[in-house]
Every structure is written in C-alpha cells, then in structure tokens.
C-alpha cells in the first residue's frame, strides 16, 4: 500500500471518528492505528528472526526461488519466502544475491523498494539468463 494512501485513510478515520464521537472517537481511532503499526512491526521482527537463523544469501534451490519471483515483490516478502537475508552485490545498493549449494545464483534488482528485474546465473558456460517482467 502506498504511504500516501495509508496516511490518507488514517486521516479520514480520524475525521469520521471526530464527527461521530468527538475526542473519544479520535482516541479510539488513534488506538486502532497504533495497534496496526505494532502488528506490522511484530511481523517484520518475526521475519528477521527467521532469517537470522539461516546462512546469508542461501536458498535450498535457486531455480525454484527464481521460478517464484514476480515484479513488484517487496524485500520483506522475499526474505519471508527464502528465510534468508540476501548478500548485497558489489557496486550496487539495489542488487541482492541468493545462491544454493550447487553454485546457482539469483540476482535481484530493486527500485523504490520493489523487485523490477532478476536473473539466474548458472555456473555452466551458459552465463546469466536475464528475465524481463511481462508487459
């Protein structure tokens, strides 16, 4: 969800609560927003705790990981699916790499926090296989 849309909904909730119940309604709306933010924080912490137990940038099968990717995924969703933090690629702040024991690696590129492209790199002479998102 867009932050602008989310905070617009919060403001609308506060205005509607104010009109319906006065300060008590605003207090209830604020409590609901704080509760939602705490739930999001708790979810993120659980994902990071699971990822901390795994080796950095490791997935059981890079090919299966590659097959499950789609444009628009957030880093949090990818870390939740792999249960591992990616290794940062040298020379770029937006490229991350996951690999398996066979040497197959998947390089992901993010823009504005969303996955835009990725490539599968096999250790054979074939080289990287670029993948463009569907139009």
Gist of the model:
The protein has helices at 3-21, 23-52, 62-67, 75-82, and strands spanning 87-88, 95-99, 105-111, 114-121, 128-131. It has 135 residues and is α+β, with helices and mostly antiparallel strands. The protein has a 5-stranded antiparallel beta sheet.
CATH architectural grouping of the largest domain: 2-Layer Sandwich
* Terminal residue distance: 21 Å
Q: Which fold does the CATH topology of the largest domain refer to?
A: Beta-lactamase Inhibitory Protein, Chain:B, domain 1
Q: How many strands, what sense, and barrel or not for the largest sheet?
A: 5 strands, antiparallel
Radius of gyration: 20 Å
Overall shape: elongated
DSSP, total strands: 5
Task: Give unreliable regions as ranges.
Answer: none
Task: List SSEs in N-to-C order.
Answer: HHHHEEEEE
Please give the CATH class of the largest domain: Alpha Beta
Averaged pLDDT? 89
Biggest β-sheet: strands ordered side by side in the sheet: 1-2-3-4-5
How would you describe this protein?
- The chain is an alpha+beta fold and 135 residues long.
- The chain has two domains: 3-52, no CATH class; 62-131, Beta-lactamase Inhibitory Protein, Chain:B, domain 1 (2-Layer Sandwich).
- 47% of the residues lie in helices and 19% in strands.
- The protein has helices at 3-21, 23-52, 62-67, 75-82; strands at 87-88, 95-99, 105-111, 114-121, 128-131.
- The chain has a five-stranded antiparallel sheet with strand order 1-2-3-4-5.
- Helix 2 (23-52) packs across helix 4 (75-82).
